[in-house]
Structures are given as C-alpha cells and as structure tokens.
Design brief:
The chain has about 120 residues and is mainly beta. The strands form 2 sheets. Strands 2, 4, 5, 6, 9, 10 and 11 form a 7-stranded mixed β-sheet that branches. The chain has no helices and 11 strands.
Length: about 120
C-alpha cells in the first residue's frame, strides 16, 4: 500500500515563500503522475500543479509564475515551492499520485496559512 506524506506547511506572511513536500513510502514516483491540490475552507478542492512523465509541469493560472513543482532525483519526493504567497493561497495542500485512471493515492494534507 502506497502512503503519501506531506510536510512543510505552516504560517507565513504575505509575500513569503514556503516549500511543501510529498514523500512516498514503499515506492518511487517514477511511474506516477503527481499533482498538488489545495482546498480552502468552504471551497472545492482545486488542482494547483502537476508533474508527469519526464518532468512536464503544468500550473493553475492562479499560481503560474509563483509556484514550482519538482521531483528529486531519487523520485521519492515531490516538492511545491511557493513564492509571493498571498492570503488567498491559504488552504490545506494535498499530494496525489496516480497511475492511469484506476490507481490513485492521496496524502493527508498539510495546512498552509498566509497572513496579510
């Protein structure tokens, strides 16, 4: 059973940077597409960034130019570097790993709070 563990969340001020991490147990990410999602209170979960295949990345318009998703060489961890954070970035950030349409794993989430 694959387990994903997110870490690195916290309380920061507007304009600060923060990096959250997602680490897999019992496997590497080499065969998975990885996505970072976030869910703010009272809102639906939304896709923030993805990294697939050989490292192709994609971002939501709201974070493009501010956030960067990456994998380590061992493909055991995926990172979301977040710059110029704003209060509207406050949410629980979740990591998702999927392989095809039927294999999907989620982490438990890590809280990111941005104060104004």
């Amino acid at each position: 059973q694959v387990q994903l563990v997110e870490s690195g969340g916290g309380l920061v001020q507007a304009g600060d940077s923060l990096t959250v991490s997602c680490t897999a147990s019992e496997c590497t990410f080499s065969s998975f597409n990885i996505g970072w999602f976030r869910q703010a209170p009272g809102k639906e979960r939304e896709l923030v960034a993805t990294i697939v295949g050989g490292g192709i990345t994609n971002y939501a318009d709201s974070v493009k130019g501010r956030f960067a998703i990456s994998r380590d060489k061992a493909q055991k961890s995926v990172y979301l570097q977040m710059n110029s954070l704003q209060p509207e970035d406050t949410a629980v950030y979740y990591c998702r790993a999927n392989m095809g349409p039927t294999v999907t794993y989620w982490g438990q989430g890590t809280q990111v709070t941005v104060s104004s």
